[in-house]
Amino acid sequence: MRSLQFCYPILLHLFLFHLLSHFSSPLPLCRHDQSSALLHFKNSFSLNSEASHWCEEYIYHGFYDGHQASYPKTASWQNGSDCCLWDGVTCDTISGNVIGLDLSCSWLQGTFHQNSTLFQLTHLQTLNLAHNDFNFSPMPSHFGGLQSLVYLNLSVSKSAGKIPSTISRLSKLVSLDLSRNYDLRIEPFPWKKLIQNATNLRELDFGVTDMSSMKQSSLSFLMNLSSSLVTLSLSGTGLQGNLSNSILCLPSLQILDLSFNEDLKIQLPKFNWSTSLKHLNLLSTKSLGGNLPDSIGHLKSLNYLALSNFELPGTIPPSFGNLSQLTFLRLRACKLQAPIPLSFWNLTQLTSLDLSFNNFSGQIPFSLSNFQQLTYLYLYGNYFSGPIPNWMFDLVNLTWLDLSSNNLSGHVEFQQFSKLKNLQYLDLSNNKFLSISFDGCANYTTPNLQSLFLSSCDINSNFPEFLTRLKNLKVVDLSNNKIRGRVPKRGNDSEHYSWITLNLSYNLLTSISDLSMMNIEYIDLSHNMLQGDPPIPSSSASFFSVSNNKLTGDISSAICNASSLEVLNLSHNNLTGPIPQCLDNIPWLLDLDLQMNHLSGSIPTNISKKNSHLKTLKLNGNQLVGPLPQSLVQCKQLQVLDVGENNIEDQFPSWLDALFQLQVLILRANKFYGIIPSRFKIKNPFPKLRIIDLSNNFFSGPLPTAYIKNFKGMKNVDKDTIGLNYLGNNSTDTNLVYFDSVVITMKGFSIELEKILTIFTTIDLSNNLFEGEIPKVFCELISLRGLNLSYNRINGTIPNSLGNLRSLEWLDLSTNKLEGEIPVTLTNLNFLSNLNLSQNQLEGMIPQGKQFNTFPNESYAGNSKLCGFPLSRKCNKDEEQPPSEPEKEEFGFGWKAVALGYGCGVIFGMVMGYVVFANGKPEWLVATFGGETKKNGEKKDEEQGQCKLHHKKLIRNLSY
Ligand SMILES: *[C@@H]1O[C@H](CO)[C@@H](O)[C@H](O)[C@H]1NC(C)=O
Ligand SMILES: *[C@@H]1O[C@H](CO)[C@@H](O)[C@H](O)[C@H]1NC(C)=O
Ligand SMILES: *[C@@H]1O[C@H](CO)[C@@H](O)[C@H](O)[C@H]1NC(C)=O
Ligand SMILES: *[C@@H]1O[C@H](CO)[C@@H](O)[C@H](O)[C@H]1NC(C)=O
Questions:
Q1: Is 50 exceeded by the pLDDT of residue 149?
Q2: By alpha-carbon position, which residue is closest to atom 5 of ligand 1?
């Protein structure tokens, strides 16, 4: 109000001036037909502020364009007044024709009709309808009639359909922006014609429209782009194919954005770069080969350069230091190598520097105080060694610092960061030789710190209490350290307070507003040496993990006050007592992991309620008794259910077959009993099941043929059809991504799969009382990786058709009553690396060749009538031929091959996934994958996009 009063004289003055100018040089009034066309246009839409919702966040090419005022410009349009004075309307001063219309961010909502009266304004030269909501109506073909248009902007307007071919008539266009209409399709023909005809184009932005129907030949048309082109954005359009790099040589080009076209390939030119280039964005676009050319040093105007997943094997050329205007540099996951040329450190204008996920090594140079402007510094995922250089602690403008996953060493006193008052994000995790201590942090404050990742930083102390004073802290990861003792906590009546708020009270910050400021959302204290009762997360926490500590005592029902929790992980501690009855009070709980404790009592029947979102429930390795509560059937989203290794006494929970999302079912080592039913109520039971482990129970009767027949999830799953992904990696559901892990028995060892690849499928029915023959239906499970039927009472012969299970890697039929010969078809199992047929009544000659040349004697022990290699017992008929060279290597078998098979696109994918669980560390695993490979796995995975490993990395990505 005050500002209005203040403005009033000025407004009045302007108004008078306007009136005067009308009298002194009479402007022609708006023409009646145009006025009425405008009013019709206005009335064809409703006004809704939501329609221009995004105006406030308008960011163009990484540059913040400032706010655009969002208000309904047409609201003031009145019939009878001169339309040339209307908000957003510009008239020609001589003819009075409407030549400009700017209704961007004007709350327009509704269908843009083909017959819209807008198209009667044929003198329009500039038209801006950006940031409105046209309800996904097809872009009208009448646009082609507005042939005077020089400027057309329909970005973020929910325009849809094909761009009409008539658009090519707009030959005078200088600027065309149709960006961010993801349902708008741009097809080759109109596109070619447009480029041919609009020879004056200077700005073209089709970012985030659909250009996926462009083929290689339409791409080459880009070469016809006007040489006057200044700005070209085709970001996220689904363009594919090889693009000639002459686009980077268009003489006037200043801004080029081809980012996020994963199937588009381009090579950086060796000569003739457009030297006017200021902004080059090729994030997630692919390289056609070559390295970072020396000639890049000619781009003297370049201030923004962003490449990621763009392979440039080799070094950064010394000429790079000439890019003295560079303020933003991202060369992430580009396979760049050391050394970084000295000239690089001359880029003193940099405010954002990202060299993460490359192969840089050596020390980060010292005595460098050049980077005073730096606000963002990302060097993670390299091999940088040596201590953190001192100059980093002087970068007073730094807000984000990520040095994680390097080989940094030395000792850091955390208070060295105290100069960095702007710091919001700090990640020093996973530097093997780095240690951090918090001495002298008593008065430490970084008021803006929001995210702190100090995982695996050799922290060897009590819980760093000063953290509880950092009011803006939202994300804390102190996992994998040696933090001892109790998490801070007040005495008796502590139950209703989180550990965070409790500490605040210790520090006398007791007012309510202070408490509400504490909104830690993510706390990972896993893999430490914490003792005492399990701490209670604050009510704003959505991720809470204290797994793998030495916590004792009962789980207090106060934990249910943490009602924002999505992930609750108390696993691998020494917790006792029952599971709290109130967990159904946490409405958005997705993952509950209480495995490997000493919890007792029965599983609460109300562990879930009707709208449960639970996806993962892991209660294995406790002392739970009683039946499995049928209320679990309400968890329609359940993907992983692991109640293995308890004392649960129940029949097979057939009612679970209605959980269509269930992928992992583990009932191992309980007291389940009885015959598994062969009839069921629903048509497709367990359609997505991939891992089923019923081993070590008392199930009896025939093998569950009817269910096996329906395991659709084990038939024909391959990465091409379902996409290679990890279970739980579905970031659309939640911004806290949590990968599921389970323990399974694989190749005779208990192994924890840290992440379950969705192509991983196994059946373990071992150590029960199953009887009868092996049903032929097994042969339909052609994606099965492992099958274990050992220690049952199975008789009959091994079906020939098992040879169809081409993906099988381990097969254990030992200790049964199988008879007859081993089918020769089993030699078709090219990936089989582990076979156990011992303790049966098999007879005849062991099949020879391929994988069968690699199995040891023990595979066949206890079958007195078997003969041939590798047994010393010769077969009667013909003399056994000693096998030639084992074909192991030739076929790429063995563990390595297996790991490759699971790899994320290329090589290292599954390496990290197989973490050997305590009771067995097979030599072969250590030999192949010990030590350094782990890091590689991590790195490559990150690059592969789909296979991200660390949930925190994901958070990081989301935070950008
Ligand atoms: C345009 O067509 C729509 C139906 O497609 C009709 O409802 C509307 O009245 C027409 N408007 C004009 C101005 O002719
Ligand atoms: C090119 O533009 C001119 C002038 O607007 C127009 O007459 C002609 O039809 C356009 N050509 C194509 C192929 O659209
Ligand atoms: C860095 O800049 C300084 C001064 O601007 C110059 O003298 C030096 O040669 C440059 N270093 C390199 C390696 O280009
Ligand atoms: C920090 O940033 C501010 C503006 O953001 C700038 O004025 C100042 O010079 C920077 N500090 C240093 C040491 O460069």
A1: yes
A2: 113
**Centroid of ligand 1 to alpha carbon of 160 (angstroms):** 19
Domain count, the chain: 3
Closest residue by Cα to residue 938 from 953, 926, 956: 953
496 and 561 Cβ atoms separated by less than 8 Å = yes
Mutate to test the pocket of ligand 1, among 36, 44, 111, 113 (most ligand atoms within 8 A of CB): 113
First to last CA, the chain: 37
Residues 6+ apart with CB under 8 A from 152: 126, 127, 128, 143, 146, 170, 173, 175, 176, 177, 178
Whether 123 and 181 map to the same domain: the answer is yes
Distance CA 725, CA 717 (A): 12
Q: How far is CA 368 from CA 68, 84, 115, 342, 365, in A?
A: 40, 59, 64, 11, 7
| CA 255 – CA 483 distance, rounded (Å) | 50
Q: Which helix (H) or strand (E) segment is 484 a member of?
A: strand 484-486
pLDDT, tens digit, 9 for 90 and up, residues 808-866: 988 999 999 999 999 999 998 988 989 999 999 999 999 998 889 889 999 999 999 99
Ligand 4 mean position to 351 CA, how many Å? 10
On whether residue 262 sits in a domain, the answer given is: no
* Residue matched to tokens 């029947």: 605
Question: Could you tell me the pLDDT band of residue 24, with boundaries at 50, 70 and 90?
Answer: very low
Query: How high is the pLDDT of residue 53?
Result: 77
Structure-block tokens of residue 151: 């400027």
**Coil, helix or strand for 642?**
strand
Instruction: Report, as an integer, the average pLDDT of 734-741.
Output: 45
Residue closest to 468 by CA, chosen among 503, 433, 427 = 503
CA–CA gap between residue 228 and residue 245 (Å, rounded) = 17
| DSSP 8-state assignment for residue 116 | -
Q: Is residue 707 part of a domain?
A: yes
The structure tokens listed for 233 are 């954005």
CB of 397 closer than 6 angstroms to any ligand 4 atom: yes
Q: Is the peptide bond before 587 cis (omega within 30 degrees of 0)?
A: no
State which amino acid sits at residue 559: I
Give the count of alpha carbons within 13 A of 889, CB side only: 1
> Which one-letter DSSP state was computed for residue 578?
P
Q: Domain limits at 960?
A: 893-960
Report the distance separating Cα 36 and Cα 41, nearest Å.
8
Residue at 148 is within a domain: yes
d(CA 166, CA 179): 18
Residues with CB under 6 A from ligand 1: 40, 113, 115, 117
Q: Which residue's CA is minimally distant from atom 10 of ligand 3? A: 343
Contacts of 848 (CB under 8 A, 6+ apart): 827, 868, 869, 881, 883
pLDDT at 101 over 80: yes
Report whether pLDDT(693) > 90: yes
Residue 291: CA count within 13 A, CB half-sphere: 10
C-alpha 185, offset from chain centre: 27
What tokens appear for 350 in the block? 């940099």
- Which residue, 146, 180, 207, sits at the end of a domain? 207
For residue range 420-466, what is the model confidence (pLDDT) as tens digits?
A: 999 999 999 999 899 998 887 767 777 889 999 999 888 888 877 77
> Who lines ligand 3 at CB under 6 A?
321, 342-343, 346
Helix (H) / strand (E) containing 185: strand 184-185
- Tell whether 656 and 797 lie within a shared domain: yes
End-of-domain residue from the set 147, 179, 207:
207
Longest dimension (CA), the chain: 121
Q: Using CB atoms within 10 A of its CB, is residue 88 exposed (0-12), middle (13-18) or buried (19+)?
A: middle
How many helices (DSSP H) and strands (DSSP E) are in the chain?
12, 60
If pLDDT is split at 50, 70 and 90, which confidence band does 752 have?
Answer: low
